[in-house]
Amino acid sequence: MNEVLLEVNQLKKYFPVTGGFFGRNQGDVKAVDDISFFVNKGETLGLVGESGCGKSTTGRMLMRLIEPTDGRVVFEGKDLTTLNSGEMRKMRKEMQMVFQDPFASLNPRHTVEQILEEPLIVHGIGNKEERRQRVREMLEVVGLSSYHAKRYPHQFSGGQRQRIGIARALMTKPKLIIADEPVSALDVSIQSQVLNLLEDLQKEFQLTYIFIAHDLGVVKHISDRVGVMYLGRLVEITTADQLYDKPLHPYTKALLGAVPVPDPTLKKDRELLTGDIPSPQNPPAGCAFHTRCIDCMDICKSERPQLEEIKPGHFAACHLYSPR
């Protein structure tokens, strides 16, 4: 029986849009619109979707770096949305984040030692010598050397900087790491090295990951389960193998059809998307995807489909599978 580490219930984030002479509210951008999922201990949950679908906003809300508009985030039985800033700071010892840009996320004025030591100081872990020993050990763990501790971020390559970001996330020995597109800014040859490092660290430290990405190939490589987001909503979630072998939602099928295949002689059946993503400030009624869906029915234009279990462990929000 899998043990649930994190549970998200009806999470929403609406950003107000103001305008006019008096700066009045003219509506909301529904960046994340009522999503629910869970993450088991020791697994990797991938979150994928086009740019602007709300996956990065979701990751930041889980850490309370962005305050949710509504919903609950329950970590080890504690509702994080009810905690004050001091209580939340203590919880971040157990939850850490790896950011997309490995340079912007590191303070250029600090040495690597100062950057890695900072989480330990914030949480009151160890004395000065113990903290420095921990820094040296963690640099070795992520594939760098202890003498790198005295250098500054600009003296490293992009891949090395991301390894420093990963080391910083591991300093407090967290249980959950939220990785927000951690390899998208890296060369392809470096991406695989960082992904392999993340997998090795997961086994060594019994970590749980939420891996946010737009590259379906990367997500398949590292994830146990995958959730697909579109316009702030979860449209499908299941195991990685099931999603790639037998996707249910038309949007997921279109995403998979767009993944390039290294064999030029292999023909793929592609369901190409047409049109642009609707505005999250004024999403379409019913299913948010119906304006681009080749399987659109009348009910899709008026009723929003709920995320339901279509097959064991395979959830989709689509009227094609709803009994009528």
Quick gist of this model?
28% of the residues lie in helices and 25% in strands. The protein is built from nine helices and twelve strands.
Structure description:
- The protein folds into two domains: 4-19 and 28-94 and 174-321, Rossmann fold; 107-171, no CATH class.
- Helix content is 28%, strand content 25%.
- It has helices spanning 55-62, 85-91, 112-122, 128-141, 158-170, 188-205, 216-222, 240-245, 250-257, and strands spanning 4-19, 24-40, 44-48, 70-75, 78-79, 95-98, 176-180, 208-212, 225-230, 233-239, 308-311, 314-316.
- The strands form two sheets. An eight-stranded mixed β-sheet has the order 6-7-8-3-9-10-12-11, with helices on both faces.
Name the shape in a single word.
globular
CATH topology heading of the largest domain: Rossmann fold
Sheet with most strands: strand arrangement? 6-7-8-3-9-10-12-11
Number of separate strands: 12
* pLDDT averaged over residues: 90
Structural class: alpha/beta
Q: Largest sheet, described in full?
A: 8 strands, mixed
CATH architecture of the largest domain: 3-Layer(aba) Sandwich
| Contiguous helical run count | 9
Q: CATH homologous superfamily of the largest domain - what is it? A: P-loop containing nucleotide triphosphate hydrolases
Round the Cα radius of gyration to an integer and report it: 21 Å
* H/E series: EEEHEEHEHHHEHEHEEHHEE
The tally of structural domains comes to 2
**Poorly predicted ranges:** none
Distance between the termini: 34 Å
